[in-house]
Design a protein that fits this description.
The complex is a heterodimer of chains A (311) and B (441). By secondary structure, chain A is α/β, with parallel strands linked by helices. Chain A folds into two domains: 217 residues, P-loop containing nucleotide triphosphate hydrolases (Rossmann fold), CATH 3.40.50; 65 residues, Alpha-Beta Plaits (2-Layer Sandwich), CATH 3.30.70. Chain A contains nine helices and 14 strands. In chain A, helix 2 packs across helix 3 and helix 2 packs parallel to helix 4. Chain B folds into two domains: 102 residues, Periplasmic binding protein-like II (D-Maltodextrin-Binding Protein, domain 2); 267 residues, no CATH class. Chain B is built from 18 helices and six strands. In chain B, a hairpin with a 5-residue loop joins strand 5 and strand 6. About 4% of the residues of chain B have low confidence. Classes of the chains: A alpha/beta (311), B alpha/beta (441). Chain B: It holds the Pfam family ABC2_membrane_3.
Chain lengths: 311, 441
């Protein structure tokens, strides 16, 4: 484990931002930190960055208690981006890199490398205020990772990028991950999570309500739903058997049917097939696995009413 | 420690490299120099322009022969009567005057000076003086006083005002110079505390509204960032002062050596009291005569004033900039910040206003003394008093109090700052700010 968050609680004057949150972040993985607005993600990220301290609980970085010596091992891209408007890009990157503990020589060397890689060398003498928003984001991304941290925390990293640049940044993130960096994504974009994350944790109303590998979670949230595409041999065929399943949707184009069914408990899809195969010619059978977005919505709305009662 | 140096370096360099800083650094000494040179030039010019040709119409009869032409005024006895002379005057070009001496001048003690255009003050003084002298001689003669005896008695007393200090040491005291210096120091400290304190606040608001703050404090402690900014900007201020001191001094010395011949200098210095409209302070200095001014300026302990100026400026700046820093962290934009800068600078403004009246007129009175001990007002009040001479124990006590307060305030400000910089979109009331102060880490 690169980062172990154990029973962390954080109170602010009027509310509890984090309530007994425990999360394990494995080394070298891409980790998704999910949750609706105001759930406590930013509080947790600030604690990991040592901007604030938890009221109780413990955080281990590579097995050691998290402390000032780890600051240079973490890179943080906040959701609200910002750099000094009147400072030249090159100076700015150098300053931020040096604050993270790089020597001037080493910092200049890495700035050079990154600028070549992202094709932004010609900007070095420009001021931030003269760049477009997308360009500023690129600069900020470089400033986040220039000190080669073991842990990179990215809060909504793709917002503000056009698809081309978003892709460039994604490639760089994957490259850094391949080189050994552990990455935490804090995001609302479930497609990003499905595409990139190995593991996730879902925080809602200051509590962790779900965590694990994306695959395992999706497996767990399967609900026996299948989509069948078939051609019926008879004219007025109806796919129906209350003992085995329930039909959710069904459409028909001439003799081709597309039907979604949810199996009753203890029924296997094979049972259904055995039953109907004599009457239909099966073209396609897909298990409908819930998307992370579905799981997210399901989990968050499930908890909400209860929490509302408390409030 | 290395990180705080990086912050100081950035804050310092980013400001010192600005065009506005460079312009200010050179413009202010140039401005003062130009002001001084302008005054010098104008005084000298008015001195030269003062040459007037005066036609004398002497109805009394004894005066015209006794008036003596000099480099300012040349007299010609008029052959015309007043009416014809006046007509000629209106037709002539150049600067001419008619001095009309009525028959009864001895009893009325009045004469008329008619000029095409304005009569210069210098000319009036000279003619008036000569007329007075002629009348005086005449009276002496009438009363049987021997003129030669009178002329041989020429007493000249120079009052050498000295101040005796507690340890019995005597030194020249010149209240006028102390007043001038006191006012200058009050203006300088007030403006710079305001200017640089507000820069600290603006810098913090910039970082907060830019949202770069979160990136930086994931690398350094908020306290390091705050102190780095305060120290960096303070050094900008000190740099500016030192540059001003050096540039102004350098300009005056080179200019004096290169362009001004000593004779001109003396002429101008001598004419200064007569020139009149130069403000109370310089007039007061002028009355002492140029030699004694020089003496009292030389006797003045400028080293002490400069050393304490820097000490009180630094301590006062640290105190106020810490308060400005806390205020800056509590707001989201500069408009909101304005509601804070007013109450913060209130004690400064009050002392500033008082220093022109109460403190300068009664530098050792109770109000001045109290204000120079209270840490929030002492940076100005004490500096205004120092040129008048303040016992060392008072200066050191005041400075110690100021430094202790600055340490306390910085501690408080840092606690507010670390929370404030992370809070957006919340209107910071005093109650809210007290809550921030009480937050655990």
């Amino acid at each position: 484990m690169l980062l172990e968050i154990n029973h962390v609680t954080k109170d602010y004057a009027n509310h509890r931002a984090l309530d007994d949150v425990s999360i394990q972040i494995p080394k070298g993985k891409i980790f998704g930190l999910l949750g609706p607005n105001g759930a406590g993600k930013t509080s947790l990220i600030r604690i990991i960055n040592q901007i604030t301290a938890p009221d109780s609980g413990q955080i281990l970085f590579n097995g050691e208690a998290l402390g000032p010596q780890h600051i240079s091992q973490i890179g943080y891209l906040p959701e609200e981006r910002g750099l000094y408007k009147k400072m030249k890009i090159g100076d700015q990157m150098l300053y931020l890199a040096q604050l993270k503990g790089l020597s001037k020589k080493e910092a200049l060397h890495r700035i050079h490398d990154w600028c070549e890689r992202l094709d932004i060398s010609s900007w070095l003498d420009k001021k931030i205020e003269d760049l477009s928003k997308g360009m500023q984001q690129k600069v900020q991304f470089v400033a986040t990772v220039i000190h080669q941290p073991q842990l990179i925390i990215l809060d909504e990293p793709f917002s503000g990028f056009d698809p081309v640049n978003a892709n460039i940044i994604k490639e760089q993130i994957l490259r850094l991950n391949k080189e050994g960096a552990t990455i935490i994504f804090s995001t609302h974009r479930m497609e990003t999570v499905e595409e990139l994350c190995d593991n996730i944790a879902l925080i809602n109303r200051s509590k962790k309500i779900l965590d694990g590998s994306v695959q395992a979670i999706k497996k767990e949230y399967r609900n026996q739903t299948y989509k069948l595409e078939y051609t019926a041999t008879e004219d007025n065929f109806l796919l129906s058997n209350d003992a085995l399943f329930e039909v959710i949707t069904s459409t028909r184009v001439e003799k081709t049917y597309i039907t979604t069914i949810q199996l009753n408990s203890n029924i296997h899809i094979n049972d259904v097939l055995m039953h109907f195969v004599p009457q239909i010619q099966l073209n396609q059978l897909i298990e409908i696995v819930p998307s992370m977005a579905d799981i997210f919505i399901q989990k968050v709305t499930q908890v909400s009413p209860k929490a509302n009662d408390h409030a | 420690m290395h990180k705080i140096l990086l912050i100081i370096q950035r804050e310092y360099l980013s400001r010192v490299k600005k065009k506005s800083f460079i312009v200010m650094t050179f413009a202010v000494p140039l401005f003062f120099f130009a002001l001084y040179a302008g005054m010098f030039y104008l005084t000298k010019k008015s001195f030269k322009d003062a040459h007037t040709e005066v036609f004398v119409i002497d109805e009394q009869g004894e005066f015209a022969g006794k008036l003596q032409s000099n480099k300012n005024v040349s007299y010609t006895v008029s052959k015309l009567d007043l009416k014809a002379q006046k007509k000629q005057l209106t037709e002539s070009e150049g600067k001419q005057s008619i001095l009309y001496i009525p028959k009864d001048i001895l009893s009325s003690q009045k004469a008329e000076l008619i000029t095409s255009g304005k009569t210069s003050f210098v000319t009036q003084e000279i003619i008036g003086g000569q007329l007075e002298e002629i009348i005086r001689e005449k009276e002496y003669k009438a009363k049987g006083i021997d003129l030669q005896i009178i002329q041989s008695i020429k007493p000249k007393v120079a009052i050498d005002a000295k101040e005796i200090t507690a340890d019995g040491e005597e030194k020249n005291s010149n209240t006028a110079i102390a007043m001038g210096l006191g006012v200058a120091l009050a203006i300088l400290v007030y403006l710079s505390l305001f200017l640089y304190g507000a820069q600290v606040m603006r810098g913090i608001i910039e970082e907060k509204s830019n949202r770069i703050i979160e990136v930086i404090i994931s690398s350094v402690k908020p306290f390091q960032l705050m102190m780095g900014k305060i120290v960096g900007i303070g050094m900008v201020g000190l740099t500016q002062f030192v540059m001003w001191l050096l540039l102004t001094g350098g300009l005056f010395i080179t200019a004096t050596l290169l362009f001004v011949n000593p004779q001109d200098m003396q002429e101008v210095a001598a004419s200064q009291p007569a020139a009149g409209n130069m403000g109370t302070v310089s007039k007061a200095i002028g009355q002492g005569g140029s030699a004694s001014i020089l003496a009292s300026i030389q006797s003045f302990n400028f080293t002490e004033v400069i050393i304490f100026f820097f000490l009180f400026f630094i301590a006062g700046y640290l105190l106020y900039s810490a308060i400005f820093a806390a205020a800056g962290s509590a707001v989201d934009n500069e408009t909101e910040a304005n509601q804070f800068s007013m109450p913060i600078t209130m004690p400064l403004l009050l002392t500033y206003i008082l220093s022109f009246g109460v403190i300068i007129n009664d530098p050792n009175g109770p109000i001045a003394t109290w204000l120079s001990f209270i840490p929030f007002t002492s940076p100005i009040a004490m500096l205004v008093r120092i040129p008048f001479g303040v016992p060392m124990w008072q200066i050191l006590t005041s400075l110690t109090l100021l430094i202790l307060t600055f340490l306390l305030i910085t501690w408080v400000a840092a606690r507010i700052y670390r929370v404030g910089i992370l809070i957006y979109g919340k209107k910071a009331s005093l109650k809210e700010i007290i809550k921030w102060f009480n937050y655990k880490n």
